[in-house]
Amino acid sequence: MSQKELQRVAVISSCVKGELACARAASLLDLTPRHVKRLKSRLRQGGEAALAHANRGRPSHRRLPQRVRDRIVQLARTTYAGFNDHHLCEKLVETEGFSLGRETLRRLLRSAGIGSPRKRRAPTHRQRRLPRAREGEMLLLDASLHRWLEDRGPQLTLLGFLDDATGKVLVAEFFPTEDARGYFRLLHSLLRGFGIPISFYGDRHSVFVRNDDHWSIEEQLAGRREPTQFGRALDQLGVTYIAAQSPQAKGRIERLWGTFQDRLTSELRLAGANDRDTANQVLRRFLPDHNRRFGRTPRDAQKAWRPAPENLDRICCFQHERSVSNDNVVQWDGRRFQIPPQPRRFSFAGAKVQLFESLEGKVSIYYADTKLHLDGG
């Protein structure tokens, strides 16, 4: 008998002996006096064993049929192998049509010898900073290098932007490596789809901030260092970049990657994704479902997005300043670009021009707002 049942036996025995009134016993056991009288009668007729629960040892009428239990175990070992308990429960209910709870599934899996794929959970992080109040007020950006395709394909890097107020992943995509071109692609999609946020919060990767100690002569004369290509784009947009000093400081997006490495990896395995294109297709289906399950309502319903400018192709790109040679040629990256005759100026020899390389590799040359050359890439 359980400790609760042993306590009940002791109290009811005192009532039978006349040592305790039924009203007092009912108060101690949190029962009604009428039910205490029933228990006294059971104790007199059947002894202490009569006070045990009548359904003890009997299978529950809500127990899953054996064929259903066998089918669930089979799916957990084959189709959904490697899924965590919560994720597997969602799939069984939404995709396979079963009706069961996560705790029921957990007991069934453990009794069948199927353990949790997560051997050790990360320690609980004490969250001190409140999320931002408005959507678009601060976005966390980061990359996760992981064997997303396991042994089926190449190692990929997942880049993503997480809204701090809602906990939703606004844009994300798989790339071969973490580089400025990938972040520019995400920034372009973000600006087109949502607008300009107030700030970004990320690490001190060389894509975002300058980590070298070299100062050019121009930087020394100006008293400030030139930003990175991505930093220059944020300056043009008027977006503040906040550089974290440690991985723990950006714990929200780090925990997001932990969730993705569990759930998204299982979804990629389920879909049989084996290259970057199919992985991105699965990711596009995965993000809305993830945001629906894990997103939250911001404290302030007013959004902080600002409208994006029209000339995004001159912002989300690689920009370089070059001097024009005497024969009106601009040299860059081992290539030579001839400036054709212009109606308003005879020659651009010695002029400082801006060279823009688009994300598709096309090169255009501008003098102020005048386009001098366009190369198809």
Give a quick summary of the entry:
With 377 residues, this protein is of the alpha+beta class. It has helices at residues 3-16, 22-29, 33-46, 66-77, 85-94, 102-111, 180-193, 217-222, 229-237, 251-271, 276-294; strands at residues 139-146, 156-163, 169-175, 199-202, 240-243, 318-323, 329-332, 335-338, 352-357, 363-367, 370-375.
Spatial ordering of strands, largest sheet: 3-2-1-4-5
Kindly estimate the percentage of residues that lie in beta strands according to DSSP. Answer: 15-25%
CATH level-four homologous superfamily name of the largest domain: Ribonuclease H-like superfamily/Ribonuclease H
Overall number of domains: 4
Order of helices and strands: HHHHHHEEEHEHHEHHEEEEEE
Strand count, sense and closure of the main sheet? 5 strands, mixed
Task: Considering the chains and any ligands shown, give keywords for the structure.
single chain; 377 residues; alpha+beta; Nucleotidyltransferase, domain 5; 5-stranded mixed beta sheet; 11 strands
